[in-house]
Design a protein that fits this description.
Elements: E1 2-5, H1 9-23, H2 34-40, E2 52-60, E3 66-75, E4 87-95, H3 99-115, E5 120-123, E6 136-139, H4 154-162, E7 165-176, H5 183-193, E8 198-202, H6 208-222, H7 234-244, E9 253-258, E10 261-270, H8 273-276, H9 285-296, E11 302-310, H10 319-331, E12 340-343, E13 346-347, H11 351-359, E14 363-374
Parallel strand pairs: 4-5, 11-12
Antiparallel strand pairs: 1-2, 2-3, 3-4, 5-14, 6-14, 7-12, 7-13, 7-14, 8-9, 9-10, 10-11
């Protein structure tokens, strides 16, 4: 077997080709856009390069056939509460069904991470934000959501026989858009609705700066502490919203305000993969025209829950039910063409959010798993700490 560092256009192209070659015949697979993978490894597009570095390899067999790939990365911002050593990451793993090949890829990444001072590696994870390319698919081998990892079932064996251990499971929940909400939602909604200090509104594309600022406020109060204290600035939030603007459906993105101060977010988007699966990894002029046509004709029947959160001082007071019922009035009306609803993953370390999903009537649709491998094989192993 031949291991090759990705260091030019040809090897970067082969890095993408490995994934296509090994997954093209796997039922449910949707080819990611090439540009989305390339952006992860572009220092001009990925801010993780400000705090870390990465390296990639491709694997060929003795006949020169593509057999695997892996990326390894270190990021000073990547920390989990309770970590007792520096932790690096591996991701974008693909491999033929051969433990020897998988071990070679993982050993190579491990050696590089050790040279960088790491004491453990998590994988498969992303070099960047956790909402993309995070975790190994371990249950629910059907069409992935946009920028979600997809792999054949045998990858589980390759990781676990190497010695990776469960760090946390990532559960996706789903339901039919037409499913009736439980009666308790309406009772809790009525109590909040009676108070004029509260109001729920959906996003308006012509007022993105306002909603981006509201997003950053809620994010920083509700999530920053779970992201290593990393807050989101107003400019960063606005850039994110501008990036999402072509995909935004105003009726499925909601905010709650109390005395005109933002306190909660329920952000949903159409599942972009319902368009991308027709594009074979490309997004040039023809694909953009096709996207507009598919969007105009309502080809996407699935909406995806991206973020649901309430600032701490308003948690447990019925705000979740109020926001969901207000949104459901439009989402479940004749104005909506969506049939299926699936939420982005919720870590099993966050039972409060799991309870919200289950109270909504959603059921698990798939599971991804983030694994951890301690380089000191005698050190005590700890799972991801629980939130709250």
């Amino acid at each position: 077997m031949q291991l090759i560092i990705v260091n030019d256009e040809q090897t970067a192209r082969q890095f993408i080709d490995v994934h296509v070659t090994l997954n093209k015949d796997v039922p449910g697979w949707i080819r990611p856009l090439d540009k989305d993978i390339e952006a992860v490894f572009d220092p001009e597009k990925n801010k993780a390069f400000r705090h870390g570095e990465c390296i990639r390899w491709i694997l060929k067999d003795d006949k020169g056939r593509l057999s695997g790939r892996i990326a390894a990365f270190v990021n000073k911002k990547y920390k989990t509460k309770g970590d007792e050593c520096l932790v690096g990451g591996v991701g974008f793993f693909d491999c033929i069904d051969q433990q020897e090949a998988a071990n070679l890829l993982l050993d190579t990444a491990k050696k590089w991470l050790q040279e960088k001072g790491m004491g453990a590696m998590d994988g498969p994870i992303n070099f960047g934000e956790r909402n993309n390319w995070w975790g190994l698919l371990t249950q629910g081998f059907h069409e992935p959501l946009y920028c979600m990892n997809f792999n054949p079932p045998y990858y589980i064996r390759l990781f676990e026989q190497y010695g990776f251990q469960l760090f946390f499971n990532q559960i996706c929940y789903g339901m039919k858009v037409s499913d009736q909400l439980q009666p308790k939602f309406f009772a809790r909604h009525a109590a909040i609705e009676a108070d004029p200090a509260f109001k729920a509104i959906h996003i308006r594309k012509n007022d993105l700066p306002r909603f981006a600022e509201a997003f950053s406020i809620v994010y920083n109060k509700a999530w920053a502490q779970h992201a290593g204290g990393k807050e989101m600035g107003k400019a960063q939030a606005l850039a994110l919203f501008k990036q999402m603007k072509p995909l935004l459906d105003e009726k499925i993105a909601w905010f709650v305000y109390h005395n005109d101060e933002p306190i909660a977010i329920w952000l949903n988007l159409p599942d972009l993969n319902q368009y991308i699966k027709h594009m074979n990894g490309k997004f040039g002029l023809l694909q953009k025209l096709k996207f507009l046509w598919l969007k105009q004709t309502g080809a996407c029947k699935k909406m995806v829950g991206i973020i649901f959160g309430i600032i701490p001082e308003f948690q447990g007071k019925g705000i979740d039910a109020y926001m969901i019922v207000e949104g459901a009035k439009l989402i479940q009306s004749g104005m909506s063409h969506y049939v299926d609803y699936e939420m982005q993953w919720i870590g099993d370390f966050n039972p409060r959010m799991q309870n919200v999903a289950e109270a909504l009537g959603a059921i698990p649709t798939r599971q991804l798993t983030t694994y951890r491998y301690l380089f000191d094989r005698t050190a005590p192993y700890k799972r991801h700490p629980m939130v709250g």
